[in-house]
Automatic annotation (TrEMBL):
Gene3D superfamilies: 3.40.50.1100. This is Threonine dehydratase. Keywords: Lyase, Pyridoxal phosphate. It comes from the Bacteria. InterPro entries: Ser/Thr_Dehydratase, TrpB-like_PALP, TrpB-like_PALP_sf. The lineage of its organism: Bacteria, Bacillati, Actinomycetota, Actinomycetes, Streptosporangiales. Its cofactor is pyridoxal 5'-phosphate. One of its GO terms (molecular function) is L-serine ammonia-lyase activity.
Amino acid sequence: MQETRLDTDRILAACEVIDPVFLNTPLYRCEALEPHLGCAVSLKLETANPVRSFKARGTELITSLIADAGASAVVCASAGNLGQALAWSGRKRGIVVTVVASRSAPAVKLDRIRALGARLELVPGDFDQARERATALAEHYGFRLVEDSLDIETCEGAATIGLELADTSPSFDAVLIALGGGALATGVGHVLKALAPGVEVICVQPQGAPAMTHSWHSRQVVTTDATDTIADGVAGRNPIPAVLDDLLLVADDAVLVQEASITTAMRLLLHHAGLVVEPSAALGIAAILENPTRFAGRHVATIICGGNVDIDAYHRWVGATPGRRDRSRPCS
Ligand SMILES: Cc1ncc(COP(=O)(O)O)c(C=O)c1O
C-alpha cells in the first residue's frame, strides 16, 4: 500500500501520551439494535469521557508536543468538539487556548468550551469562516494554530481508536466512520489497513455536507458553497488536499445519508442502546438503515463519536417519530 502521512509506530507511541481517560473505550456488540438493522452491530463508545467526543485523543497528543516545545498559546477553529477537547488538554498543561467557532454552533459545545477556561470567539457564518479567523489570529498574535485533520497529531490521536478496533477478535467485516475533515476516518482507516486489512472501511457523511465524499469519489478536491445538515460536527465545505490523499489510500467507500435516516438512527440508539448521541455519531447507523442489503449477515462496527447535543434540538429530532404521533392520534 502507498504510504499515508500517518505512522503506525507513532500511533502506538501516542497511547503513552494520551490521558487514559480517553483510551480503551467500551466496544461491545449491541444485540438490541440488531433486529432493526439486519446485521450484527458493535458500538465503539467515544462519549463516556470528560469532553464527550473522540477529539481529545488528538488534542492530548498535540498539546503535549506543544508544551514540550515551550509554546504557551494555541488557537483553533472548531465546530465545537475539537475546541472543547483542546480546552481540556490545554488547561491540563497550562496552555492558553483560543477557540473560534460559528455563532450557530450548538450552545452546549460553546458553553463547555468556556467552562473549560478557553477564550471563545464567535464568528458569523460557518466552520470555514471560523477557520479563516483562526488563521488570522494565529498570524497576528503568534499563537500556534491547531488545524484539525491537517495536523498529523489530530489524525494519529484518532487513529488510536483503530488500534482498539484492530485488537478485537473476531474481527469485523466493516467499520462505519463519520467523515468530517477526515482526521477520524484517515486515522482509523490507516490502522485498519495496516493491522486488519480485511476490514472494509466505509466513511459516512450527510447529503447536506457532501464535500469530502464527493472529493473521494472524484479523486480531487470538490468544494461546496453551503452545508445543510443537523450533523454539525461533520459540516465542512472545503476538504484539505493532503487529508483527501490519505483518505483515498485507506477508505474503501464513502457514502451519503439523508437527514431523516440520521434522526431515525439517533432514535434507535436512544431506544435500543440507551445512548444520547449527537447527529454526527449516528451516521454509521444511518448508513446501515439506508442500505440494509449491503450489510445483511455481516458484522459491522461503528464509532459513536460524540454526545454533545443541545437537549431541546435533540428532543425535537428524536421525539418526532411517526410511530408516536400515530399512537396519539384519536381513533377514526
Ligand atoms: C462528533 C463528531 N463526529 C465526527 C466528526 C468528524 O471527524 P473528522 O473531522 O475527524 O472527520 C467530528 C468532528 O469534529 C465530531 O465532532
